[in-house]
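Try this one yourself first.
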């Protein structure tokens, strides 16, 4: 792993990464000469956009939410906004990089794209293993998008969205095959619940608060979530809080009190007990142990 972040984990926009872009959509062919700016990607950071990469050859190693991934040929990698990334080194590879924002997806009026599994990513997956047929299909769509993006003709965004729609539906089928063998009837409510947690976990720590926003009773929400996931609704809320706590403990030098405050806990001692109850260790012990393991 690389150096820690002494202050808040930085979040980068697409415009910051590629200044000559619209800030909404980027597609680029990666070659062995392609290098990401080390000053940005070699330290812990978040992205406020979706990033997808079809790796054809070469590879590198990176971390997403403290899990290491070694990029391999004939594999498709994807991430969603706000996860914590660290790239170990600027290794070379061949492939195609695709990045886009929620604003770009919003051009699609019926919001279908935002509901697709590869965008929602309920299983927190990051790689899709491809056979030759999958590689050929995805590569063909991405190259059509590359050509359309370069031509800058009328209705370009409409064409790019049409191709993106096909690509995301295709990827969502692969995602479902690899991560979601059984599709539960209540998946929509579970997805909405997860989306709300990701948006408001710092402000809302109780099931009733989320139930109010979903216009259902806390009892009904808890019953459906338990049926669909095997975990209680409060467990989902607590897991999201713990994930963010681990990110901040691992990647920053914030004090326990500062982390507690960022996560919506008014009392640092209560946060300390909360974390220990779910992790069987104190926040400080987790920080020391995790850094010893990965550094």
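Now uncover the answer:
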């Amino acid at each position: 792993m690389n150096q820690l972040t002494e202050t808040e984990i930085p979040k980068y926009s697409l415009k910051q990464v590629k200044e000559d872009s619209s800030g909404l959509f980027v597609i680029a062919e990666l070659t062995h000469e392609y290098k990401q700016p080390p000053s940005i990607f070699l330290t812990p950071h978040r992205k406020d956009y979706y990033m997808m990469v079809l790796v054809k050859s070469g590879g590198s190693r990176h971390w997403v939410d403290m899990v290491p991934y070694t990029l391999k040929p004939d594999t498709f990698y994807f991430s969603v906004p706000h996860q914590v990334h660290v790239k170990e080194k600027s290794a070379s590879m061949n492939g195609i990089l695709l990045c886009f924002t929620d604003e770009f997806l919003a051009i699609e009026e019926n919001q279908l794209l935002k509901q697709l599994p590869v965008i929602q990513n309920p299983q927190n997956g990051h790689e899709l293993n491809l056979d030759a047929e999958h590689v050929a299909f995805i590569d063909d769509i991405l190259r059509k998008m590359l050509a359309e993006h370069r031509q800058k003709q009328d209705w370009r965004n409409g064409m790019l969205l049409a191709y993106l729609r096909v690509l995301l539906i295709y990827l969502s089928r692969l995602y479902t095959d690899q991560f979601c063998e059984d599709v539960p009837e209540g998946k929509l409510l579970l997805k909405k619940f997860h989306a709300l947690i990701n948006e408001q976990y710092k402000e809302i720590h109780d099931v009733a608060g989320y139930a109010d926003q979903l216009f259902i009773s806390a009892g009904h929400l808890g019953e459906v979530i338990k049926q669909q996931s095997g975990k209680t609704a409060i467990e989902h809320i607590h897991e999201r809080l713990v994930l963010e706590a681990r990110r901040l403990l691992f990647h920053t030098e914030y004090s326990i009190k500062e982390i507690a405050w960022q996560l919506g806990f008014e009392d640092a001692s209560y946060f300390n007990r909360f974390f220990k109850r779910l992790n069987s260790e104190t926040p400080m012990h987790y920080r020391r142990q995790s850094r010893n393991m990965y550094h």
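Discussion: The two ends are 6 Å apart (CA to CA). The mean pLDDT is 84.
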